[in-house]
Amino acid sequence: MKRFGLIGAGGFIAPRHMKAIKDTGNELLSAIDKHDSVGIIDSYFPDASFFTEFERFDRHVEKLKKQGTPIDYFAVCSPNYLHDAHCRFGLRYGADVICEKPLVLNPWNLDSLEEMERESGKKVYTILQLRLHPNILALKKRVEESPADKVFDFELTYITSRGSWYYTSWKGDIHKSGGIATNIGVHFFDMLTWIFGSVKNNVVNVHQHDRAGGLIEFDKARVKWFLSINEHTLPEAAKKQGKRTYRSVKLEGEEIEFSDGFTELHTQSYQQILSGNGYGISDTRKAIELVYDIRNKEVAGLKGDYHSFCDLPFEKHPFD
Predict the structure, then answer these.
(1) What is the pLDDT of residues 119-172, one digit of tens each?
(2) Strands 27-32 and 49-51, bridge-based pairing
(3) 194-218 pLDDT per residue, tens
(4) Which of 76, 131, 197, 249 could form a disulfide with 219 if both were Cys (CB 3.0 to 4.6 A apart)?
């Protein structure tokens, strides 16, 4: 049984990590979040210590080490801009780290983490759960078995509606979340680099507070993509059904279904990591470089070949 510490217990994603820790037969000893709305812990590890101040959390886990019951793994579910610091904390402590995506916001932060891995002898793992989805695995196999000179047409559309709270939270601050492409899209961009290879050309047609879209040319595909948190960008069919989320992945015009099958992917990711087969820093580098490039790219506007949703009328920031 491995002993876990959890950094960032109050967010949306933390319960998936709690469940994964429990489902893999391990134990959560201590958790930290600056917010105290973390009653979900009772569903998994009611005896876990909880702190709202990092200094007290630090002191407690150090005490555990001195008592001979050190933390083996820190799970990091804090805001994106803190991932790098919290991973380094775990390595300095002498534990391995399992960090939510994006692992970091800037590519050069990966270099310093790799250096700390070498110094500490410990590893940083990240959650790339789409690589474990059966339909995504089948898609990768299909692309690998295609003719060497085949370049696919691929379209990605992901809309997940968010209210005004989003812009008040850290997620609405591009310096803390990395913006739309990073915060809600990094796992899709990881999937694309994993399946289609290296980026040859990257055009950003739209990049607003509530949406982003563009065209990326990979070794094996031309990908039109569009991401949004604005419910007004939902297709009419989705609106009529009362849906607030829309996800579509098309290869050569054929819809690839992968809406289901996500429930256990964090647990499967933990199983892979605990067996020594998890995804590490090098595995996430291409996606981190790509979303960094998207974030800093000059917006080309509606020129050339682009995703049809990029034509949708823009809206003001809700706080303008």
Answers:
(1) 999 999 999 999 999 999 999 999 999 999 999 999 999 999 999 999 999 999
(2) parallel
(3) 999 999 999 999 999 999 999 999 9
(4) 197
Tell me how crowded residue 24 is: count the other CB atoms within 10 A of its CB. Answer: 18
What letter represents residue 143's amino acid?
V
Which two structure tokens, joined as six digits, stand for 203?
């055009």
**What is the separation of C-alpha 12 from the centre of its chain, rounded to a whole number of angstroms?**
12
| Other CB atoms within 10 A of residue 302 CB | 11
- Cβ atoms of 90 and 82 closer than 8 Å: no
Q: How far apart are CA 244 and CA 222, in angstroms?
A: 28
88 phi, psi to nearest 5 deg: -65, -35
N- to C-terminal Cα separation, the chain: 51
To the question of pTM greater than 0.90 for the whole model, the response is yes
Give residue 40's identity as a one-letter amino acid code: I
| 8 Å CB contact between 243 and 143 | no
Residue 68, judged by CB atoms within 10 A of its CB (0-12, 13-18, 19+), counts as: exposed
Contact (Cβ atoms closer than 8 angstroms) between residue 296 and residue 175: no
Which residues are 50's β-sheet partners? 31
